[in-house]
Amino acid sequence: MSEILQISQLGNPGLRRQSQVVENIQDDRIQKLIDNLIATVKQANGVGIAAPQAAQCDRLFIVASRPNLRYPHAPQMEPTAMINPRIIASSTETAKDWEGCLSVPGIRGLVPRSRAIEIEYTSRDGKLYRQELTDFVARIFQHESDHLDGIIFLDRVESTQELMTEDEYQKQVVNLL
Question: Predicted confidence band at 177 (pLDDT cuts at 50, 70, 90)?
C-alpha cells in the first residue's frame, strides 16, 4: 500500500541539497519511494514531484502530467518515474510560463524554460530511455530536474513583478485559458 508523504516546504534545507545518483534501482526503498511519490503527487494535485521534496536525497522524480485543479489544461500522461535523469540538449528557443510548486504553496511565478529538450533517464525497471520533450512536459522535467540540484523555481523568476498568489493565478490566468 502506498503512503502519502509529507512534502518539504520552502526553507527546508533538504530542498537546497544536491541529490545523489541512484545506484540500485531495484532496491526496495527506491521502489517504495517511487510508489509513494506517485501517490503523493496525485493526492496533492501536482504534475511532478522530486525525491528531495519528500526529504529523500535521491536523483529521481515523477512526471505525472494530467488535468487537475492546479493545472486544468495539462496534457494527460501516465505517471513516469525518471531515475538519474539528465538533459542532453536544450533548444535555444525559450518560453516563459507560470509555474507553481508543491514545496512553495500559494505562489506562482513566470519562469523562462527551454521549449524543447532531449533527455535521458532510467525507468523503475532499469531500462534506459532517451527522448525529446516539448512545451508543458519539458517544463515539468526541467522544474523537477532543478529540484535534484537544489534549485527552486523562484530562483529562476526574473522579477518579483512576475509572481502572483495561487488565488490570483486561478482568477487571472486559468479563467482566461
Answer: low
pLDDT given for residue 3 in this prediction: 97
Grid cell, residue 74, equals: 495539462
Res. 76: pLDDT tops 80: yes
Q: Which residue from 102, 103, 81 is spatially nearest to 22, judged by alpha carbons?
A: 81
User: Rounded mean pLDDT of 136-163?
Assistant: 98
Range of the domain at 168: 13-176
Total structural domains in the chain? 1
Is 2 inside a domain boundary? no
Distance CA 129, CA 113 (A): 22
Residue 115 lies in a domain: yes
Active site amino acids: 144
Q: Is residue 51 part of a domain?
A: yes
C-alpha to C-alpha distance for 32 and 92, rounded to whole angstroms: 37
**Per 3-state DSSP, what percentage of the chain is helix, strand, and coil (rounded to 5)?**
30, 30, 35
C-alpha closest to that of 30 among 3, 64, 60 = 60
What's the whole-model pTM score? 0.96
